Amino acid sequence: MTRTVYVNGEYLPETEAKVSIFDRGFLMADGVYEVTTVLDGKLIDFDGHAKRLARSLNELEMKHPVTEEELLAIHRKLVEVNEVEEGLVYLQVTRGAADRDFAYPKDAEPTLVLFTQKKQAVNSPAAKTGISVISLPDIRWGRRDIKTVQLLYPSMGKMAAKAQGADDAWLVEDGFVTEGTSNNAYIVKDGVIITRNLGNEILHGITRAAVLRFAAEAQIKIEERPFTIEEAKAADEAFVTSATTFVLPVTKIDGEAVGTGQVGPIAARLREIYLEESRKTAV
Ligand code: PLP
């Protein structure tokens, strides 16, 4: 079935959707994005993703193409017409098409594109076995709090992990883990969850915010601070969070088992709580 996608106010078959070759997203990665998960045909954490999108746009002095209400309506319509029960909605805003120039154009209209992807996420086998990660230097730019489409280094990181027979990479800067290629990173030691504090160095994960809130409600202690790969290897558990993977256990780092090498109880419990609670507030 051909998907229906959204481009600048129009719902079109995916084969007919077009964006200009002068679009600054294409020429300069001058764009931001969001990925919202769909479960039971409903959007998970929509409000958080919409707020973070607004923040990314503001940080880059980019125009907001539509209001938050309009954005929700577009998401809902795409989920409905494409009959997505489980999957995601991808959204991208760029500064729009203009003659190539490093300076921001004055009169360009932003480009807004959304499409859906069906994907089984809840019953992922990796949730039962855990994933393996390798460590890599974090050589991304310094404003990782802005969710831009500059994703080449994270892609290279995933490929480096695959080349070593691992699933993903944890990025390390000045001796400390920042985050995963496309997720936030956590360890658990003596019942305490440790995860990098917010700043420009990491993306402020929407799933991170929800999971830390649920952990606090479940009386689990949290320390928001940097940690090293050595500390992670000596931890009892490790896991990552993202909109599309929820809470995913990490059982191996650079070839060494974390804790027992099995999925840990805190990661497993947080995954359950996250799925249960976020389904309740899905829209
Ligand atoms: N960190 C990075 C670099 C990411 O790309 C992502 C998601 O794409 C995350 C963290 C997790 O963010 P969220 O929970 O909002 O999906």
Give a quick summary of the entry.
Helices cover 29% and strands 29% of the residues. It is an alpha+beta fold and 283 residues long. The chain folds into two domains: 4-118, D-amino Acid Aminotransferase, Chain A, domain 1, CATH 3.30.470.10; 126-281, Alpha-Beta Barrel (D-amino Acid Aminotransferase, Chain A, domain 2), CATH 3.20.10.
Description:
This protein has 283 residues and is of the alpha+beta class. It folds into two domains: 115 residues, Aminotransferase class 4, branched-chain amino acid transferase, N-terminal domain (D-amino Acid Aminotransferase, Chain A, domain 1), CATH 3.30.470.10; 156 residues, D-amino Acid Aminotransferase, subunit A, domain 2 (D-amino Acid Aminotransferase, Chain A, domain 2, Alpha-Beta Barrel). Helices cover 29% and strands 29% of the residues. The strands form two sheets. Strands 7, 8, 9, 10, 11, 12, 13, 14 and 15 form a nine-stranded mixed β-sheet that branches. A six-stranded antiparallel β-sheet has the order 2-1-6-5-3-4. Helix 6 packs across helix 8. The chain is globular. The model has no long low-confidence stretch (mean pLDDT 97). Bound molecules: pyridoxal-5'-phosphate. Pyridoxal-5'-phosphate binds next to helix 6 and strand 13.
